[in-house]
Amino acid sequence: MIKLFKLHEEIEDARAYFLEALTPMVFTAKDGTELPYRLYVPAQYNPDHTYPLQIHLHGGGIRGNDNKFQLYHDTEQTQMLFAHQFFEPFIFAIPQCPIEYFWSEFQFQTWPEGEKTYRPMAEVEENCICRAVYELTEYLSEAYSIDKDRRYLSGCSLGSTGSYELIFRHPDTYAAALVGCGVSDPQTASAVAHVPFYIIHGEKDPIISVRYSRDMATALEAAGADYVYIEIPNAEHNFFAYITNGPELMEDGMRWIHSKRRVQKK
């Protein structure tokens, strides 16, 4: 069995492995939006059993139209997430955001000296790509034997922002989310507090301020949410470069979110 933190030692060319293991697919949403994605179905898949579904949203710099770059650029993250297969098989989808779009239209905010401001996510319209990811979730849930109480999101940077927005827009769909270094809106905390979040951010992130995650964690705490917040000292946007236990950290996160089951919003 390949363990998470040994995966790169077992697979000589991880990129080639994932290009072969994750089948290229294209999903067409109801409005005609095309969303390329990669799909992994466990080799031992049995339609008489049910499986968790994990959807991973990549960062903004990996947008494209080749349905490969999300594996090329995010190979290490893909390894860390994928290797949870060896603890518990799950169906794994990695869509690619087209270059002309973003997962979310929720905008970065600036902090003037001494002042923090947010544009509420509720004031931003859901774009066609965010909606397509939700529809892809529902499509896969019907196409495969998926436990609808165990559908999970993960994301990094822009992908975390997309994960936050998907849960805000579709509060009865996902069971939990693993998010790293993303923009969030703490004003949504009460609306998403029924969904557990595992949040990671680097203390000195120069691209997306750690204050987003700090404020979201504070708001989730006030809302009585089930969450974990990990801030990595001195780390910047790519916090994996600043730690030696990245695989173990991600495995802890995956096990934590996969232990959660969907709770309907009251």
Detailed description of the structure:
Mean pLDDT is 87; it is low at 1-9. Helices cover 31% and strands 20% of the residues. The relative contact order is 0.15. The chain has one domain (4-109, 117-258): 3-Layer(aba) Sandwich (Rossmann fold). The protein has 266 residues and is an alpha/beta fold. Strands 1-2-4-3-5-6-7-8 form an eight-stranded mixed beta sheet, with helices on both faces.
Features:
single chain, 266 residues, alpha/beta, Rossmann fold, eight-stranded mixed beta sheet, 8 strands, 31% helix, globular
Q: What's the CATH topology label? A: Rossmann fold
User: Looking at this structure, what is the CATH superfamily?
Assistant: Alpha/Beta hydrolase fold, catalytic domain
Number of DSSP strand runs: 8
By CATH, the architecture is named 3-Layer(aba) Sandwich
Radius of gyration: 17 Å
**Pattern of helices and strands:** HHEEEHHEHEHEHEHEH
> What proportion of the residues is helical, as a percent range?
25-40%
What's the end-to-end separation, in Å? Answer: 41 Å
Rounded mean pLDDT is 87
